[in-house]
Amino acid sequence: MSQPLRLTYGNSDVTFYILNKKPSFNNQQIDIMLDGENYQLRKLAGKWGTDNASEPKHGVINAIGNMIALRYRI
Q: Which domain of life does the UniProt lineage start with (predicted)?
């Protein structure tokens, strides 16, 4: 597990962890832990998303995916 990463979304701080090795351009799947739950992010049609997230978390998960993509230049 990596160091905790922080993101400000909707006027609140969100802390999450990247579970797999360093994300790369070749691997378009990223495993994260958010609020004690594991999610697998995938990039589909230019947006980051997951299948097992509730509706209110889709926005924050998309923001996390964008942040990771910018940080690791995916």
A: Bacteria
